[in-house]
Amino acid sequence: MALSASGTPKNTFTTSKRLAGTNRTPAPGLSEKTPSNTPRSQFATPRTNYATPKSRKASSAMATPECSSNVEAPTRKDKLSNVNVAVKIRPGIAKEQQPPKNQFTTPKTNSATPKSRKASFDTPDCFSNVTVETPTASSKRNSNKDKYDQVSNLTVAIRIRPMGAKELGTNVVKIRDKELIIRTQPSGASGMATDHIFQYDHIFWSCDESDPIYATQEDVFMTLGKPLLNNAFRGYNGCLFAYGQTGSGKSFSMMGRNTCDSIDIDTERYSGVTPRFCKDLFERVRTLDKGWIATVEVSYFEIYNEKIHDLLASSSCVSNRTPLKVREHPIWGPYVVDLSVHTVKTYEELRDWLLQGNKNRATAATSMNEKSSRSHSIFSIELSLCERIKGEDMSRRSKVSLIDLAGSERLGNSHNTEKIREGVYINKSLLTLGKVISALADQKKNQFVPYRDSVLTWLLRESLGGNSLTAMLATISPASTQLEETLATLRYACQARSIVNRARVNESPHDRLVRELRLELENLTSLREEYEKRALSSSSVILINDSTSEDLEQLRNKLTQTENRLLEAQRDWEQRFMETKKTQMKELAEAEKYKAELESTVRVMKTANSDVSLSPYTTNFLEELECVLTDDNAELSDISDDIKNWCNNNDLTCTFTADSMTVTDLVHGKQARLSLGKLDLRGFENIGDFIRNLKWTKAVKPAKKLSKAEVMSSMNRIYQALSHLQPPEDENNLSLLFAKVNKSLQAFETALLNNMRSNTGQKTVTFNM
Ligand SMILES: Nc1ncnc2c1ncn2[C@@H]1O[C@H](COP(=O)(O)OP(=O)(O)OP(=O)(O)O)[C@@H](O)[C@H]1O
Fold first, then answer.
1. Is 660 helix (H, G, I), strand (E, B) or coil?
2. pTM of the model
């Protein structure tokens, strides 16, 4: 299978090039062979990040403090013993026991996590009730049902940025013994401070550079970005999103200090996860074996006020940008229509795109952060790896999305209506993200997940509970003045840890099979070689020692058995290879046939009479779709089909609605309408007789032509309605039918728009088929 210029296999529908947000591109596969120059460990699953933490017990028993502070502990009372504890503490953590400078000092006994739920109940009266800050994580963490599937919980990390120079308040964040502790000010009748204790997969303490446990940009990348990169080379999708309050350090962590400065973005001190990821990616590509072809494509868009803007579009101009639409592809999921995708060959090329996108990103001053980014930005990198083995191209694709979310605004602080509008939309996306996380974290079966309630969550669907290895970086400020926001972020992040994703290698079943069989073959060959070696050495020993022929016979038998197995596997391999090849050819033929059908429909529509109003097509299609979906009046549909056929053959237009039938004679300018209740063919010799006897009146003026916007808006409504009917993944037949309906719909829309273009000379809209 040859690759197209941009690395897309030729027989892949071009729509895959436009996919964004999620990547369910059914990419052809590739051999498991590790590029020899690449260290094997790089390809290994980063157990530390996605693995079930070994230690699940909370750090220490809750000793009763001398009524100096309250301890807020888990609220899900029945599940505390199951608390999933996994906090990565970097080297030097031992010193963490000493509170970093300008942090409060807590007596050791005061803020310890309860060892068990029971312990929390023993809390003396002078303490407030215990509530969950670290929820139970799923037991599914990192179980592998399929050899190549990775089932894992979202990896959640927290980063604490330094206090700003002008920031008021004191530092209320502390880390101790793999825990993050927030101390609230004394309040209430007890007049005591409260300690909120949280646990995460990783905690990055970046408050004070002189602190030995200070987490650098490199630390963040190595812990969160590198595993995604390693897995991308293995064919897994990945996603890292930064979440946090405005000014808490999301952009700093993801991109760097000055996101538009080409020097700054590359400096060791400031370079964020995204540029590091891209640089490392090309380093890895450089070390690939000869014979491997790697294609890297990037796209970058932002969601601003629930509208999508391409940050890399050629004519991208901040003031005049056309919002893009999200569509649901039946196989590949939600994607951004017409998003530009750029093939890059070097890191420098990629960095230029990144900088261009950053410059285009909507920014606005807020009361909190002078250059606060008011949009969610999604930078996606698609990696295709291809190797030619025995004349066959084996490839796999992966997509990694690096996301910098906008900070949630407290609208009360702003007087600007535009800002309030932005805030509402940003909050809508983040609010929905919260709802999605809650629903996924709930883990109740059939729980409705409102992915579609916002553009952001719709596009992140696969990254949240789908085919992706996902990590979340929650950033917080240590200042007491930001306490409320900080606690909200930390709770949000806690909940996200319960989300379970199932990532799989993105390759075709055919390529997976070939890869597996090649591995099997390699194993057996090495086994045979080993036996041969042993047999040789045994026979020499036998010759020398004149040992029993029994041992030799046994060894020979084993060798023969192994050889037979090998032969069998080879035969099996060849047979299965041929079978899959045949299936592939069949599928290809079907696709070609389907493509031809579509092309002919488009041709017919293009050459249609320019006077024909578009309305009948729309109405007809909608009615037919309604009929198909409701499966109503099967008998009636037989009659209506006959009538429609007759009308078509006699230059009449016939349309059926839910309760009436309308026949239009455009040539003579007359029309007849009949309610379906009165549709009765008895007493007529044939359909012609029936039609002639209808009550004809002067035809009403043909409906006005639909504008492109109207067509697209109604088509979008249909797509939305249709997507609600999407069958579950395991319903193969229904899924196929669904895909066909969806495809037909796309064909219909293309035809409509093409027709419109030829009629009105309006601007063309290109749709991928
Ligand atoms: N780890 C850090 N070390 C040093 N400075 C930091 C760190 N994190 C953030 N900062 C500084 O804090 C300020 C705010 O950070 P940043 O712009 O990244 O916040 P943000 O969360 O992306 O805000 P917004 O939501 O408004 O985009 C910047 O001046 C940044 O340089």
1. strand
2. 0.56
Distance CA 623, CA 627 (A): 6
Confidence of residue 28 (pLDDT cuts 50, 70, 90): very low
Q: Is the dihedral of CA 502, 273, 327, 736 positive or negative?
A: negative
Ligand 1 binding pocket includes 358 (Cβ within 6 Å): no
Which range has the worst mean pLDDT, 534-548, 655-669, 735-749? 534-548
Annotated binding site: 244-251
Sheet with 670-675: list strands edge to edge. 653-656, 660-665, 670-675, 696-698
Cα-Cα-Cα-Cα torsion 384, 387, 393, 398, nearest 10 degrees, comes to: -20
Distance 102 CA to ligand 1 centre (A): 20
Work out which ligand 1 atom sits closest to the CA atom of 244.
Answer: 21
pLDDT higher than 90, residue 380:
yes
pLDDT value at residue 9: 34
Give tens-digit pLDDT for 142-153: 444 455 667 778
Atom 10 of ligand 1, residue of closest alpha carbon? 249
Residue the block writes with tokens 């509208």: 307
Angle between helices 732-760 and 708-723 (to 10 degrees): 180
- Taking 70 as the threshold, does the pLDDT of residue 486 lie above it? yes
- Other residues' Cβ atoms within 10 Å of the Cβ of residue 32: 20
Taking the CA atoms of residue 582, residue 148, residue 531 and residue 390 in that order, the dihedral angle to the nearest 10 degrees is: 40
Alpha-carbon distance 364 to 361, whole Å? Answer: 10
pLDDT number for residue 492: 85
Cα 508 to Cα 26: distance, rounded to the nearest angstrom: 6
Q: How far is the CA of 381 from the centre of ligand 1 (A)?
A: 24
Contacts of residue 417, Cβ cutoff 8 Å, sequence gap at least 6: none
Pocket test for ligand 1, best of 158, 159, 160, 161 (most atoms within 8 A of CB): 161
Q: How far is CA 109 from the centre of its chain?
A: 43
- Which of 75, 229, 235 is CA-nearest to residue 146? 235
Count the alpha carbons within 13 Å of 203 in the hemisphere toward its beta carbon. Answer: 25
Q: In angstroms, rounded to a whole number, what is the distance separating the alpha carbons of residues 211 and 205?
A: 9
Q: Partners of 502 in the beta sheet? A: 151
Q: What is the mean pLDDT of residues 414-443?
A: 69
Is 106's pLDDT higher than 70? no
Mean pLDDT of the residues in the chain: 68
Cβ(160)–Cβ(215) under 8 Å? no
- Specify the higher pLDDT residue, 512 or 300: 300
Tell me the pLDDT tens digit for each residue of 623-659. Answer: 555 544 444 444 556 678 888 888 888 888 888 887 7
Contact 590, 582 (CB under 8 A): no
Binding-site members for ATP are 244-251
Hey, whose CA ends up nearest to atom 26 of ligand 1?
A: 372
Q: What DSSP state is assigned to residue 96? A: G
User: What's the rounded mean pLDDT across residues 64-82?
Assistant: 36
